[in-house]
């Protein structure tokens, strides 16, 4: 049985999914954005796929989200979705949007597939 909080979170996810309609952004990326926006813990899938192994990795992705200009969430979602599972691409994305975390490196369990 889902809690009231879980139901509310699903409504937030559903409304955020509408922003990405037709873009091909995957649900795990939308859930990442929602959880970062609400400062909630990430799902195990998001932790794995986005290389969030420390609190600094979480803060860096949160800073990326905070750096987005009004109306730029769709583009950021597409950028995050393309970088999912690719540590070097995530590192570059963070360096672009949140340069205060430029020294932080992201690694995912999928990185060996990109080499």
Topology of helices and strands:
Layout: H1 4-19, H2 27-37, H3 44-49, H4 55-67, H5 73-83, H6 87-97
Would you give an account of this structure?
The protein is an all-alpha fold and 115 residues long. The protein has one domain. Helices cover 59% and strands 0% of the residues. The chain is built from six helices and no strands. Helix 1 crosses helix 2.
Based on DSSP secondary structure assignment, what is the total number of beta strands? 0
Q: What Rg, in angstroms, do the CA atoms define?
A: 14 Å
H/E topology pattern:
HHHHHH
Total number of distinct structural domains: 1
Structural class: mainly alpha
Largest sheet geometry: none
Sheet-strand content, in percent, reads under 5%
Q: What best-fitting shape do the alpha-carbon axes yield?
A: globular
Q: What is the first-to-last residue Cα distance? A: 43 Å
Mean pLDDT: 90
Number of continuous helical runs: 6
> Helix share of residues?
55-70%
Could you name the ranges where pLDDT drops below 50 across 5 or more consecutive residues? none
Key traits:
6 helices; 115 residues; single chain; 59% helix; mainly alpha
Please outline what is shown here:
The chain is 59% helix and 0% strand.
